[in-house]
Amino acid sequence: MSEVAPPSAAASSATGAVVAAVSSRMGYVRWSICALLFFATTINYVDRQVIGILSKDLQTAFRWSEIDYGNIVAAFNAAYALGLLLAGRLIDRFGTKIGYTVALTVWSFAAMSHALARSAFGFGVARATLGLGEAGNFPAAIKTVAEWFPKKERALATGIFNAGSNVGAIVAPLTVPWIALHYGWQWAFILTGAIGLLWLAFWIPLYSHPEAHRRLTKPELDHIQSDPADAAGAKTPWVRLIPHRQTSAFAIGKYLTDPIWWFYLYWIPNFLRQNHGLDLSTIGLPLIAIYVVADVGSIGGGWLSSTFIKRGWTINRARKTAMLICALAVTPIMFASNVKSLWLAVGLVGLAAAAHQGFSANIFTTVSDMFPRRAVGSVVGIGGMAGAFNGATMAVIVGYILEVTHGNYKIPFIIAGLAYLIALLIIHLLVPRIEPIGDMESVAAKPFSIGTIVGFGFVGSVFGSFAGWAVGLLSRVSGSSLLKYMAIGALIGVGTGIISGMVITSSTSKPQSV
Fold first, then answer.
1. d(Cα 332, Cα 297) in Å, to the nearest integer?
2. What residues does each domain of the chain span?
3. What is the pTM of this model?
C-alpha cells in the first residue's frame, strides 16, 4: 500500500484559512435557541418557587399543618407527573414550538390563579393546574437540544438551559419577599405568573426547526447534523420504550433523585427560617447563595462530561464519571440538620444543590445518547413522570416526618445524601454501557426478560402509588394512613404492571429479541 504524502506548508496554511472562514460563517443561532430555553426554565422555576418562599407565612395565615403543606406540594407533583407523561408524547407529535406555547400559556395563568385561593384545597387545585402546564418545559427543552445540537455539545447545552432553574430560584427570593412585603402575597403570584406571557412574545416569532430557520447558515446546519443519522422509523409506541433497560435506568434515576430537588425547593426556606431564625425579610440572601452555587454545578456538570469526551473518553465513561463525582458531592448534606452556623448550613445545601444539578444535566443527556431523536421526548416524559410521582410521595413523607418529629429535618437530609449513589448504581447495573440503541423497530422485548419485568413492574408501582394517594385523599386520610394507601397501591401496581407487560410483549414480540 502506498503511503500518503504529508501536506505541504502552503497546503496547511490554505486549509487553516478555509477552516477559519467556515468557523466564522457558522454562526451561533443554536445558542440563541438555547438562550430561549434558559429563560423559559428560569420562568418555570420562578413560578413554582413562590409558594416555597411564602409557605411559612401562608401556613400561619391559613393554619396549615405540615401534613397539609405536604399534600399541597404533592398535588403539584402528581399533576406535573401526569402532565409529563402526556407532554412528552404530544411534543414528539406536534413539535416543540406548539408544545412550549401551550405549556407557557397554561402555567402562567395557573400561577396567577393562586391569588384567588382561600384554603388548602384551593391552593391544591391551583398547584395541580400549575403542574400540568409546567410539565411541558423539560420534555420540550430536551427535544429542542436533541434537534439543535450535535451529541458533543448536548451536555453543555443541557447544562446551560438547566441552569435557568437555579437562576429562577435566585430571582424568586430577590423579588417575591419584596413584592409580598409591600403589596401582599397575592401580587407575588400575579406578577411572577405574568412573565411567562412575555416570553411567548419572543418564542413564537423566533423559533423554528433547524431546516426551516431563516437565519441558520449552511455550515451551522451541517455542524448540527454532523452525527450519524438516526435509524429510520415511525414514532415509537410507549409499550416498546418501557421494556428497554435504558428507559428503566433513566426513569429509576429520575425517580430517586428528582424528589430531592423538590425537597430543597419547597422545604429549605422553612428549614432556614425554623432552624436559623430567618424571616421573610432576611431569607433572600441565603437562598440566593444556595442557588448561585447550584447554577455553577449545573453548567459545570455538563462541562465536565463534555470535556472528558473531547479528551477521548467514551460517552459511557464520561457521563458515569461525572455523575459519580456529583453523587459523592451530595453526601455531606446528611449533616446539615446538626449544623449551628447559618452559613455552614447554606454551604452544605448549596453544594448538594450544585451536585444535583450536575447529576441532572448528565442523566438528561444520556437519553439523547441512547435513543433516536423521535423517542427522546417520550423517554424524558416517562422519566420525568416517575420523578414527579415520587416527588409527591416524598412530599407526603416529609410532611408526615416533620409533623411527628416537630420539625426535625435529620431523616429527610439522610435520604437526600444517599439517593444519588443508589441511583447511579442502579443505572450502571441496568445499562453497563451507555450507547445508541439503534433501530428500535427491528427488535422486541421478550415477555420474561429483565427489561420487561423491571420496566413494566416499575411503571406499575409508580401508577399504583399514585392511585393509592388519590384513593387515600378521597377517603379523607392523611399522614401515616395515606402512606399505607400509597404502599399498598405500589405493591398492587408492581404485580399488575409485570403481568400487563408480559401480555403486551407476548402479543407484540418478533423473532429477534432484545
1. 16
2. 27-212+245-442, 443-514
3. 0.80
